[in-house]
Automatic annotation (TrEMBL):
Spans traversing the lipid bilayer: none
Catalytic activity from the UniProt record: tRNA(Asn) + L-asparagine + ATP = L-asparaginyl-tRNA(Asn) + AMP + diphosphate + H(+)
Keyword set includes ATP-binding: yes
Listed name of the protein: asparagine--tRNA ligase
Enzyme superclass (EC): ligase
EC annotation from Swiss-Prot or TrEMBL: 6.1.1.22
């Protein structure tokens, strides 16, 4: 008899057929006459039932979680009253071990203990990834990337891939990672925005999905040293256009993710309370947010009542977002607390045409603005911020050769996922998190 063909755990599993499955032991229940094991292969899971002579072998008696196996058997329908967790199971007639798993880390790989020390979990991230929750988040992450790319295609933004090694700052010098570049100082990019702006004249609206790097000094649940930055830049627009585009992008991405039944199930499992946002998002000016914070007795980071010009720090922002409990466009931040390139509001020169998108549970997930399109004003802004203009000649040139009203935004993918998947920290939303003090595994 020839070997039955190998099937992935979600396909080809018609009842009655004899198949061969390959995977790892995800759950294991050993009884006197029967072994139930749940096999996983990254596509799906399948309960396999071993009986008779099969379970009296040394291999069966010493089976451990994560051991990789090949199992032959017949696929059978499970009677409805026993359906846990699936409606199919494999009745094994032969199995062989491919790779034994040492039994010492079972707790980490399958059920993360409630009292697990976070450092141990981060050290063992490669094994934690084998758990259901971590795998689900990474699958939604892939679905989100797919949805963003499809949405950008629908909106006719072209994908470009800017460099990560740069010689200019975008979001302030204090969070730059620097390194030696053939004897010169270079940095890891904080944002691809300035490069995206240079693409507009010949490519039209553009986007990129690229890592951004921030040497953050603080350990918070939403700051990474390396994160995936989804950035878009749009030409010949107004600030109102930018807000409308952002709403549309976010809602469409959510819609696309949830249209996929597998994704919808994963999101439901991870975050049962998730409600897709509805348009229009609530709009709130920075100045009104300051008033709101004062009225609600939410102090600034120095413990003082907020006043105009204060940064709205993470704690206050999160409290406000959680109380309002809807997506918010926070707009018109003061010039002093925002980046050099942001365009001033014509009707109030103290503030910029800027926007943060705030989501309940996380706070800021997007930062965007209209850009200074006037040459003299930009030169003035470099001076105000104490930035030497020479390294920016290529950026400044955009204002010399056919300038235009334009704007864009950056969305932190891990923050988007923390919101959508209801995760406590962005560290759960990437493959191998990088944050203050951690660069392994
Ligand atoms: O608000 P930020 O700093 O804006 C920019 O970088 C703009 N140049 C983007 C643009 O207009 N093209 O960062 C944008 C977003 C934030 O809203 C946040 O979601 C995410 O990037 N982000 C971080 N995510 C994780 N860890 C960090 N340290 C992050 N810093 C920013
Ligand atoms: Mg920001």
């Amino acid at each position: 008899e020839t070997d039955p063909s190998v099937v992935r755990l979600r396909e080809g599993d018609a009842p009655g057929t004899r198949v061969r499955v390959l995977g790892r032991v995800h759950r294991l229940r050993q009884q006197k006459d029967v072994i139930f094991l749940t096999l996983t292969d990254g596509y799906g899971q399948l309960q396999c039932v071993l009986t008779g002579d099969l379970i009296r072998t040394y291999a069966a008696l010493t089976l451990t979680l994560e051991t990789s196996l090949s199992i032959h058997g017949e696929m059978r329908v499970v009677p409805p009253q026993q359906r846990a967790p699936l409606d199919r199971e494999l009745h094994a007639d032969f199995f062989s071990i491919i790779g034994v798993a040492a039994g010492d880390k079972e707790a980490i790989t399958t059920r993360v203990p409630k009292d697990a020390d976070p450092q141990t979990l981060y050290d063992n991230r490669h094994l934690v990834l084998r758990g259901d929750t971590a795998a689900s988040v990474l699958k939604v992450r892939a679905g989100a990337l797919r949805a963003f790319r499809q949405t950008f295609q629908e909106e006719r933004l072209l994908e470009v891939t800017p460099p990560c090694m740069v010689q200019t700052q975008v979001e302030g010098g204090s969070t730059l990672f620097s390194f030696d570049y053939y004897g010169q100082t270079a940095y890891l990019t904080q944002s691809s925005q300035l490069y995206l702006e240079t693409c507009l004249p010949s490519l039209g609206d553009v986007f990129c999905v690229a890592p951004s790097f921030r040497a953050e000094k603080s350990l918070t649940r939403r700051h990474l040293s390396e994160y995936t930055h989804i950035e878009g830049e749009l030409d010949f627009i107004t600030f109102a256009d930018l807000l409308e585009h952002l709403e549309k992008i976010i809602c469409r991405v959510i819609e696309l993710i949830l249209q996929d039944p597998q994704m919808a199930a994963l999101v439901r499992e991870l975050n049962p309370g998730f409600k897709p946002p509805s348009r229009p998002f609530r709009r709130m000016k920075y100045a009104d947010a300051i008033d709101w914070l004062v009225q609600h007795n939410i102090p600034n980071d120095d413990g003082q009542p907020h006043s105009f010009g204060d940064d709205i720090a993470e704690a206050a922002e999160r409290k406000m977002t959680d109380i309002l409990n809807v997506p918010i466009f926070l707009t018109h931040f003061p010039v002093e607390i925002k980046a050099f390139y942001m365009k001033k509001d014509d009707s109030d020169r103290r503030v910029t045409e800027s926007v943060d998108v705030l989501m309940p549970g996380v706070g800021e997930i997007v930062g965007g603005s209209m850009r200074m399109e006037n040459y003299d004003e930009l030169m003035e802004a470099y001076k105000r911020e104490g930035i030497g203009s020479e390294p920016y000649y290529w950026y400044t040139d955009q204002r010399k050769y056919g300038t235009s009203p334009h704007g864009g935004y950056g969305l932190g993918l891990e923050r988007f996922l923390a919101w959508m998947c209801g995760r406590y920290t962005v560290r759960e939303c990437c493959l191998y998190p990088r944050f203050t003090g951690r660069c392994t595994p």
